[in-house]
Amino acid sequence: MAPIYQSGAFIQQCFAVHPLCLNVKRFEGGERLLFGCTSCHLTHRVSLRSVLARMSAVPTESGEPPAEGSGRPAAALLADCAAQHAPSLSVRLLDVMEDLVGLRCSECRRVYELRVHTFETHQR
Description:
Largest sheet: 7 strands, antiparallel
Structural class: alpha+beta
Strand content: over 45%
Mean pLDDT: 89
Number of helices: 2
Low-confidence stretches: none
Shape: globular
Number of strands: 7
Distance between the termini: 10 Å
Order of helices and strands: EHEEEHEEE
């Protein structure tokens, strides 16, 4: 069985050294987010405490402001993004000292702030 590391150090290192290789794999049950690193071949699991969502300040290509999320919970919006267009989700911020992960969806132009309960790293 592959070891599991209960630390944010590995995902922080992936983000610091090769941030474009850190990809969202799936959102599990509204409480866990899985990331895969294509460079070091580690899987990072993040257990969430809370999810906040807001629209990006960047206008769409037509110059219109992005559409709002119809009052749905942020976790539901993130689940939709992860299910429908996971490759569009990118990690924009990672701070293990503050237990914070920031995601941006280039498809629907949302920015997510994830408050993290635990970080885990699994070797594949």
